[in-house]
Amino acid sequence: MHGAGNDFIVLNGIDQDLSGILPEQWQRLAHRQFGIGADQILLVEKSTCSDADFRYRIFNADGGEVEQCGNGSRCFVRFVQDQGLSNKNPLRVQVAHTILTLRSHPDGQVEVNMGAPIFEHSQIPFDAKGLSSLQEFHETLFALPLKKPAPHDSWIGALSMGNPHAVQVVGDINSAPVLEEGPSIESHIAFPKRVNAAFMQILNRNEIQLRVYERGAGETLACGTGACAAVVSGIRRGLLHSPVQVRTRGGDLTIAWEGIINDIIQPVIMTGPAVTVFEGETTI
Ligand SMILES: N[C@@H](CCC[C@H](N)C(=O)O)C(=O)O
């Protein structure tokens, strides 16, 4: 399946027990030459709480299990419908420690309440304790000594959408150093659980272009949580206004966020496509 070109293998873990699959088996399945090929694998299972209809688990192409996946959540809805597992709309699904509400629209788009963004450093997690200044942060990040203080446009926003993101604004999306800087941002010491690195070009207050170097998967054609994180960062900085059209290399997403109202951080609403490419059986 894919959501705006971010591609997934989605497995039915309800009618069969797939809980014992090892990281190297996920890696092999996701391998583009020696397996089926995917950015992430989703394992759909029975819910373990009364509040949700299903749960799903997310594995990056490197075999690691992670907490959240925006494009995957929309594909989960399409999968449940295609497989005749439920015709409920909206659906509630358990993902790691959160419950998402997902609604399928008549035009095929899927809307997901992604929950509230998290800014608390310890929960991202982001730990700048070992770094004395923004200057040092940039030096360690890009391994380049800065002659002057970091320029305004090299600001990096750190936040969590259930999974960690580092967002920066770039002047031109096509020449953004996604492949050059993505790996060093992903593994930067300030992010103890590693991080997804987003690069956004602002076209106007309601439209951005986005590329993301994903933790555990490399650059993907789109990243749903990355789109949410980029829009939230842009709104917090006063650069964007909700709703925002996010143009990725694989398609468009709409992200809405009302900010913080009466001290309550509002949830992020993501709308976008979810497409089934083929169905089949495989040995693992
Ligand atoms: N592609 C996803 C995010 C998948 C997980 C991410 N690589 C991580 O490690 O946190 C999305 O659409 O959000």
From TrEMBL:
This is Diaminopimelate epimerase. It holds the Pfam family DAP_epimerase. It is an enzyme of class 5 (isomerase). Pathway: Amino-acid biosynthesis; L-lysine biosynthesis via DAP pathway; DL-2,6-diaminopimelate from LL-2,6-diaminopimelate: step 1/1. The active site is at residues 69, 223. Its EC number is 5.1.1.7. GO terms for biological process: lysine biosynthetic process via diaminopimelate. SUPFAM superfamilies: Diaminopimelate epimerase-like. It comes from Polynucleobacter brandtiae. It comes from the Bacteria. Gene3D superfamilies: Diaminopimelate Epimerase, Chain A, domain 1. InterPro entries: DAP_epimerase_AS, DAP_epimerase_DapF. Belongs to the diaminopimelate epimerase family. The keyword Acetylation does not apply. It catalyses: (2S,6S)-2,6-diaminopimelate = meso-2,6-diaminopimelate. Homodimer.
